[in-house]
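Dear Dr. H.,

I hope your travels went smoothly. While you were away I took the liberty of generating a structure for the chain from your last submission, since the lab meeting agenda had it listed for discussion. I wanted you to have the full record in hand beforehand rather than looking at slides cold. The sequence, exactly as received, is reproduced here:
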Amino acid sequence: MTIALDAMGSDRYPEPEIQGALWAAEKWGLDIILVGDQSRLEPQLRALNTRGLAVRIEHAPDILEMSDKPVEAARLKPRNSMAVGLELVKKGVAEAFVSAGNTGGVMFNALRILGRIPGVARPALTAMFPVRGGHAIVLDIGANADCRPEFLLQFAIMGSIYAEKVLHKQNPRVGLLSNGEEPGKGNQLVKETYPLLEKSGLNFIGNVEGKEVFNGEADVVVTDGFTGNIMLKSSEAVAKLITDVLRESLMASWRTKLGALLAKPAFAQIRQMLDPSEIGAAPLLGIDGLVFVGHGRSDARAIMNALRVANEAIRANLLNNIREAIREKLSAVENTITDNP
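The corresponding predicted structure, in token form, is as follows:
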């Protein structure tokens, strides 16, 4: 298992990437290629006790910063760490690419270098939402602000395969995010997508509202990137508000501090559920290669878990499974529409 890791991606690069790579190599026996400026990576890697771990460097002199515009950066910084890492995947040197860098940069370079899976019109950014009983995949969460019904159908197929093959959810439940559960609810996009999902052969459970999402009633939630991005950022803000207010209230007096001490195991469980470092990274589905994007604030633990997720996707033969599912499901929907115009 060889994974290319963008060593210049996170906000505090390259320390989290180097440490996370070493932990992942030791724990899962991965072969990891650190892609970045060799003059910065080599001294730090040499200073650590690598114990013969399979972690090596692929030189990439340019860095695509969070503030860079992807299209312009591709011209001004052609040998950036994202581009070099994705080239390794294209050449078959690496089986997956992981970055905690500029999401737009990952998307642009992945499309430019790897292209899309045949039959996929738009790739989708995914997010793992903490819900009752585990996590739900939500896509798209920002790559495609304007969508057509066939895009959402493709998102549903890819998300369902990821949930089944990587997250080991049998017959994953697919929901369409809407403002009401009834089939007739929603905007024009939702109304036109609904019959496509009904004919897809997926385990489509119908429209779902936000409360059903967080109650864990769907494994895969499909929406356009505009709505998904607002949902993601709103959810993160609400979670932070609640935890901040709760912390302030619990520290207000000795009585509340005593209560906080007694409830410490419960708070630890909640903290773990909301901690993005436990998830590591989410897949960029629809790209003709395995590409994973982590949070810019990723620490070493988050990087380690991002590599774990990429490793699980490789072992699950995710890319080929998505290719096959797109071909079969889209053909089935087209045949159903033709037979029942």
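Two observations you may find useful: Residues 201 and 329 are 7 Å apart (CA to CA). The longest strand covers residues 124-131.

With kind regards,
E. W.
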